[in-house]
Amino acid sequence: IAWLTQYYSSCNDVTAKSVTLGMVVCNWVVILSVCITVLCVF
Where are the transmembrane segments (predicted)? Predict the structure, then answer.
């Protein structure tokens, strides 16, 4: 995340920015849903 905040603002490619942001958001959504599922099941 520290790397992302450092290089995100200096990157000029809008497509790369949106793809990176989408991947990070998607990753966090998956992690959160796994955690919620584990908490609900156990």
Answer: 20-41
Give the DSSP letter of residue 10. T
**Residues 12, 26: Cα–Cα separation, whole Å:** 22
CA dist 22 and 20 (Å) reads 5
Instruction: State the Cα–Cα distance between residues 26 and 29, nearest whole angstrom.
Output: 5
Averaged pLDDT, 11-28? 79
Q: Is 1 helix (H, G, I), strand (E, B) or coil?
A: coil
Predicted pLDDT of residue 4: 63
